[in-house]
Amino acid sequence: MEASTIPVEGAVTKPICIGLTCWLWERGRPQRIVKLAQSMGVTVQLTQKFHGLHREIEAQVSGRNVDRFIGEFVRHC
Questions:
Q1: What's the chain's average pLDDT?
Q2: How far is CA 73 from CA 18, 30, 37, 61, 69, in A?
Q3: What one-character DSSP code corresponds to residue 23?
Q4: Which of 12, 17, 44, 60 has its CA 20 to 30 A from that of 71?
C-alpha cells in the first residue's frame, strides 16, 4: 500500500482575516500592522473604511508564520 502525501508548497491556503477599529487620528495603526507583517514574513492586504471619527481596518494575512503574526498582533496592535 502506497502512502499519498500532499506537498506543503502545493497546498492552497486561504488568508485569515483580522480587523480592528480605532479613532481616525490614530494614523500609526496601519503602519504597525504592515511593519509587523514584514518582520514575520507574512503577506498582508489592508483595507480601511471610515465612519465619522472611526476607522475600521481589515487585513487579510497569509503565509507560513500567520499564527505567530496573530499572537504578536494581539500584543502590539
A1: 83
A2: 9, 11, 9, 11, 6
A3: E
A4: 12
> What pLDDT was estimated at residue 76?
77
CB 17 within 8 A of CB 60: yes
Amino acid at 22: C
Are 63 and 45 spatial neighbours (Cβ–Cβ below 8 Å)? no
What's the rounded Cα separation, in Å, for the pair 19 and 15? 13
Report helix, strand or coil for 24.
coil
**pTM score:** 0.71
The answer to whether residues 20 and 30 touch, using CB atoms and an 8 Å cutoff, is no
Give the CA angle between residues 9, 64, 67 to the nearest 5°.
145
Cell numbers placing 51: 465612519
